[in-house]
Amino acid sequence: EFFHSLTDGTGALVFLKNLVAEYLEQKYGINIPCENGITDRTVQPLDEELEDSFLKNAGPVTASRKDTNAWHMYGDTHEDGFLNLTCFRIPVKEALELAHKHNSTLTVFMSAVMMQALVSLQKEKVPDIRHRKKIKLLIPVNLRQLFQSNTLRNFAMYTIPEIDPRLGEYSLDEICEIIRHKIGIEFTAKHMSCVIATNVNDEKNPLLRLVPLPVKNAVMKAVFDSVGEKKSCLTLSNLGQVRVPEVMAGYIKRFDFILGVQAEAPYNCGMLSFGDTVYMNFIRNIKDAELERHFFAELRKLGISAIVESNRNER
């Protein structure tokens, strides 16, 4: 379990791989090469691994934080704070074939399927089309390749594609195209440097540095509640294909990527691929698995087979 101010999913995965590699070497006496995210644990970390790449790549111009609110799901929570976890195990081959058929990456395609499920669920919950709200998905993006960074600290931003159900029905191809163009427009060094600058400038503000921490925390929470989670239905974060050295792979059954649940919105979803399987982990703090049922229905329409696992044995 990792706190986001320390690192992002990519950095966390590197740490986990190295922790497992060290365990396997000590337990079984095997030698694991430094490849596929395995580092030399006998030497000091490189300076570039400790770099704050946000500070380094902040641009001269800031970006606006103004955005519209998204539709939010609601439901009864568990009194003991129990979190429901549901994992969809999907064959990589099936998912990739359909993604390519729709001229999309796996991230774009599964995001489109998720948005279709959200549209379907909102239609069920809000019969009057005039009262429906935008379906918006927060998709984190890894900035390391964009800025040629090797940092293991947090270096991820996000993009938020959206569709407006009040405008009519959207085909899967339309949604894929919207997401693809949104990522294409925003996932550039110039645009991301502006977004980075907005956050970095707040951090550098000398007046904010003088504010007592309790006051600062209260203000930050109020700002986040008003402009943070309200801007998307949920987060869908894809760590991509996880690779480990061949000698290590035989000891590993699977990887899972589980996001923390949101403070205000009840859902989040983490996704990765390992071997021949895509693992999609839905986490929620409400009792009813409505979104999971709609997501499963969308997969069935597309002919994608999925094994569903849950910590509450829901199907």
Give a quick precis of the structure.
It is built from ten helices and eight strands. It has helices spanning 9-28, 53-56, 92-101, 106-125, 172-186, 189-204, 206-210, 213-227, 246-249, 290-302, and strands at residues 84-91, 135-142, 156-159, 162-163, 234-241, 267-274, 277-284, 307-310. Strand 6 (267-274) and strand 7 form a beta hairpin.
Descriptive report:
This protein has 315 residues and is α+β, with helices and mostly antiparallel strands. Helix content is 39%, strand content 16%. It has 10 helices and 8 strands. Strand 6 and strand 7 form a beta hairpin. The mean pLDDT is 91.
Q: Provide a count of the helices.
A: 10
Helix content: 25-40%
Could you give the distance between the termini? 27 Å
Shape: globular
Count the E strands.
8
Q: Low-confidence spans: pLDDT under 50, at least 5 residues?
A: none
Radius of gyration: 21 Å
What is the subunit organization of this protein?
Answer: single chain
Tell me the β content: 15-25%
What is the averaged pLDDT score? 91
Structural class, from helix and strand content? alpha+beta
Largest sheet: 8 strands, mixed
Encode the helix/strand succession as letters: HHEHHEEEHHHHEHEEHE
